[in-house]
Amino acid sequence: MKLSVVLLLSTLLPTSSFILRPPPTKVGSSPLLTSFSPINKPTRLYASDAAAASTKKKSSLTSSTFNVIKACVGAGVLSLPAGVSAFSSSPNALYPSITLMLILGTLSGYSFNTIGKICKTSDSRSISEAWEKTVGPSSFPISLACFLTPLGAALSYSIILADTATSLTTAIGYTVTRSKAIIVLSATILYRLCRMKDLSSLAPVSILGVGGIFATCVFMALRAFGDAYKVGGGMFGLLASAGRPVFNLAPVDFFNLKALVLVSMAATAYLSHFNAPDFLHDLEDNTLPRFKKLVTRGFGITAIISAAMMSFGFLTFGGACQGVVLNNYADFDKGATICRGLMALSVIGSYPFVFSGLKNGFFGLMKTNPTPKQDKLFVRVGLTLITCLALVLKNAGFISAFMGAVCGSAIIYIFPSVMFLKSGYGGKKERAFNYFLIALGAIFGVAGGAVSILDSFFPAMLA
Questions:
Q1: Which GO terms describe its molecular function (predicted)?
Q2: Is the pLDDT at 195 greater than 50, yes or no?
């Protein structure tokens, strides 16, 4: 183990120091703002890029709906069953949980639509630009969110890859420890991918990711309504005692503070709001009523998929659900092995996009454009630090809940409402509703973040 860590550090860490230099001046173009593209990759936009973007082919309503679903539904949805098991092991807990998912999906869709409305009326192409036009010149909160959101995603991906690689190697008869798996993956495949300058060749992997999610949803449904994981089933005996399904019929206390874990995870499941300006401008005939229809369809289907996967996972394992529910299934379950393989390929292919977002978010905070040397150094240092954190933090569900509470609450509930109120839109009722969303986001952020930490590291304090 020690030798593996030394190998990783010697491979990734350079000997030179990390010095930020003023960005080189580009003739005819000035840096605008940071935005998230439909593949969740922050990109620095230039004035010349905006002109080119205007000639890009527009997307139909159907195509845009698929892209909204693709932007929302990802590996984070696999943590939702653990959000239910955090406060109950009773099947009856699904009734309030599904209701909650639908309500939060509606609120998330409303704020997504709000961002589109503000960008349309203010002629903005990013949240940062809309913020500067409606709130003020300082977009530091947006820049900080641009950094922290992909940081949490990259860490979650590393944890998922470590667990998935261990299960996959076990299924084919090899024994590889979790630590060795993530160190080897980081020092080889992930490092090379994160150093790529052009990520366009990896774009098809997003389709694989969506296909993998749907395949996993079908698999989870078959297992939930089958007998394989019930007492006496073919897979039940292959599970460790701590991982076997746990159910009880005790009354459900949905007002238990631990329910905030699910609330926080739900924020991650619906978090695609940085993409709202892109979806607006890429939509054919992008009137506000048409954009609202896109949001209704996209978030409605996302809510159904999220609620379904949450239900299937919880109905199979109950109170034993782990932070990533695929880890619950037996290593020798062939269906689970296929789903793990699809998920691993999807995460590996998506990792460089997320890491690129982290890198751009960092240099956005520093207000500088990186030199090639700084770019390479950031990849080495950043990937090393994330890998070290993934060796210590083993619960992707915690990362999903904590980042959903802290970043998701701000991006979904607070930022859009602040811009809405500052812009002077809406009547008294709608403005009051946006004040309510700001308060709700603050409560979810503080309380949800605190409960996520306590539930993962100090569970006795919530007993």
A1: L-amino acid transmembrane transporter activity
A2: yes
